[in-house]
Amino acid sequence: MEVPTRAEFLFQGPWQKALFYAILAVSLGIFAWQVWGRVRLWRQGKPISWRPDYLGGVVKFVLGQRKVRTSRPKSGAPMHLMIFYGFLALFIATTLLGINTYSPWKFHKGTYYLAYEFVFDIMGVVLFVGLVWALLRRRFAKPKALTSAPADFSALYMLLILTVSGFLVEGARMNVNPKSFDTSAPVGYLVSGVLPQLLPAHYLGIWWTHAVLVAVFIAIIPRLRIRHIAYAIFSAAGHQVDRKMGALKPITMQEVEEAGQIGVKEPKDYSRWHLLSLDACMECGRCTEVCPAWLVGKVLNPKEVVQNIRGAMKNGTTVAAAVTEEALWQCTTCNACVEACPVLINQVDLITDARRYLVAEGRAPGTSGTMLRQVASTESAWGTPSGDREKWMAGQDVPLVRDLVANGEKFEVLLWVGCAGSVDRGAMKTTRDFAALLKKANVSFACLGKEEKCTGDPARRTGDEFLFQQMAEQNVATLEQYGVKTVVTACPHCFNTIKNEYSVFGGDYEVLHHSQFLSTLIKDGKLNAPSLEDGAVTLHDPCYLARINNEADAPRHALGVPSNLNDHRTPVDRWLNEATEDGNRLAEPQRRAQKTLCCGAGGGRMWIEEDINQRPGDNRARELIGTGAKTVATACPFCRIMLDASLNNVAPDQGINLVDIVELVKQAND
Length: 670
Ligand code: SF4
Ligand code: SF4
Prior knowledge:
By secondary structure, this protein is mainly alpha-helical. It has helices at 14-42, 54-63, 66-69, 76-102, 110-141, 150-176, 186-194, 200-220, 228-238, 253-259, 272-279, 286-289, 292-295, 302-315, 319-323, 325-329, 336-340, 347-360, 366-378, 401-406, 418-423, 425-440, 457-462, 465-481, 492-501, 514-523, 543-547, 553-558, 571-576, 616-625, 637-650, 661-668, and strands at residues 413-416, 445-446, 486-489, 510-513, 537-539, 631-634, 657-660.
């Protein structure tokens, strides 16, 4: 019986082989020349040090397609996965064939060959279906964040033609040279049966057409959006797998002296990784679809930020001119775009680095300039004197660290109040209720009072890096002076900054959000969980807690709601990890946990004047009210301020009750 295998260069002699190799060499040469052109542009950027764990990023984000799997489950994600894995399979199939042809190891035969034919035939179908799906979606569904220019279709059509011509080559080969084992490639076998009886010349015509198309495709890949398959590998490799989403990269004075400026003026001021990541953009629009600014009609469009800086990389325009200052200042640093981007582009880095330059040039918008001056002069983002930080304590008998230390007494937990928690009316209520609950649960805690200063978060996200560093150094010095080990705070911005950004300044603490602390006290039986009517309460997840610090369970647990949302981002993950315990049921908004929708306060936006028709908070308020709940709970003083204004704007007569989760816990323990 004949051993299953495939003849190489069927019906072709040495000169045809030589011609094929010459065409392939030219096409690979054109490909490499274009890629080198991009590499030269990336090399304008600041050098980066490659880390030994770079393979982790490639495995997780390219081979594992982690980000694609966790976004757009109802439309784009399955389609993209079919195209990616189909394309990858055909690439592997071609590589295996090449190894068999050009190495002494001849393994392309027998059972292996039959399995090879079957698996890669099926993967060809997967690719075909994914491509047709993508074309139909782009042509008819027309998602708002996607463009539909001819260039947007070209790569898809090209790949579709290659897939179909590949099946034709296979079918034609079986037609002119049938074998008993041809059924192992069912699609090729089907095609061979559909074709009329062919002559070897016909087969050669089809084979050469396919070969030339492949060569043309390779040569133009760098011009097509599909180039992202190659560049995303570098982007994933250079991405620091363990980099915290909530930590911005510090600038040193030495870097400022070397560069002669603060922040990024032109694309060459970014790192080489940031520049190469721009080329990995597949223009999928995932970042745009989730951007709270774009959703309310502002000019900020994270996809365009990436594309415009990519354009500026070549034409030498400044980032502010390419992106527009208006767009740069509209970002809330909510990181929704960063979370959504499949190729790991960090739009928040791109934007905050450009803001740093604008702030240093005195080009911060008026109201945020006021906030920066307030932080610099009063050490409070609200511009209140330090003594005001103790006003909320009136009649509360709250222990102060300085008093305890003076009396030789100890405390276990530092309650970090934050600027909002000490001066904003609603946030002061949260602080008081939380302090009362700590006392009720017999927690050994104390506050810094007037010794506490702004963490520097609004200054850093606005772009005043050195003001942030000044605040961080002073706060770390105070925390070290008192030997603080554990910090708890009701503000996700303070939580994020102390937890993720203070270690660079020597501050390493156990930092907990009040929702985490409360849920533990409830679990340990020291406090009661609230009893909520099903669907009466909805929860707004703060970006700086749920997305940036992956904590969506704790606020729910504190409300007695069974929840298993952390780290479980796909619908399948959620289904597999469905929380089944009894408990309260929230009226959940569509966007929640890591996919939450920003209220519009972050990134220093709370201090920037807002067009009343373009408030991200209004969008969020409508979604929360749409759940039918009459109580909106949140776990962030910034979100509370923004939602308060937005609920008054969009639903002034609906009697919606806005609370921090701590108030509901407090009611259950009065
Ligand atoms: S930046 Fe990322 S999410 Fe946005 S369009 Fe490009 S690839 Fe898609
Ligand atoms: S961080 Fe948020 S506001 Fe800024 S560009 Fe990204 S999605 Fe838009």
